[in-house]
Design brief:
DUF1203 domain-containing protein, five-stranded antiparallel beta sheet, globular, DUF1203
Length: 155
């Protein structure tokens, strides 16, 4: 089986927002207060605790605009946090019963037929199976309910 690595949003993207930068649509992020689980930080890949401030903003986890460059709302701790480092471990933010797991090619396009609602315990094995295919460069894990970007999986 292929060795896989889970990765959070790049620190440079988080720093841009923490330093007053704009999101994928050119807007400043909105500040909210977490009411508990359900606000996963895409940088540390942990849930934002109740009472903590968070940023909500439009995020595009692709290098350039193109038809498959999905953009959607995600959350980030308002206070700086450490980027997720346990790349070989299923991130703690993946607490729902299932997620969409989908492959992308080197041109950042969806590889049709790869997207599947996957039970959380099966994410590692399905992502590894996808990454064994030469046409798949990386995999996204996305919310099965809202399609929000959670994290990326690489070889």
């Amino acid at each position: 089986m292929t060795d896989i690595h889970f990765s959070a949003m790049p620190t440079a993207d988080a720093q841009n927002l923490w330093n007053g930068g704009t999101d994928a649509y050119g807007f400043l992020p909105e500040t909210m207060v977490s009411d508990g689980p359900g606000h996963p930080c895409r940088h540390c890949l942990k849930n934002i605790d109740a009472g903590e401030e968070l940023l909500v903003f439009a995020y595009r986890p692709f290098p350039e605009l193109q038809p498959y460059a999905e953009t959607g709302p995600i959350f980030l701790h308002k206070e700086r946090c450490e980027r997720y480092a346990a790349e070989e471990v299923l991130p703690p933010v993946l607490t729902s019963p299932d997620f969409i797991v989908r492959g992308y090619n080197a041109e950042n396009r969806i590889v049709y037929g790869t997207g599947a609602v996957t039970l959380t315990p099966d994410i590692r094995s399905y992502a590894a199976k996808l990454l064994e295919r030469p046409e798949i460069a990386y995999v996204h894990v996305r919310s099965a309910r809202n399609n929000c970007y959670q994290c990326r999986v690489d070889r």
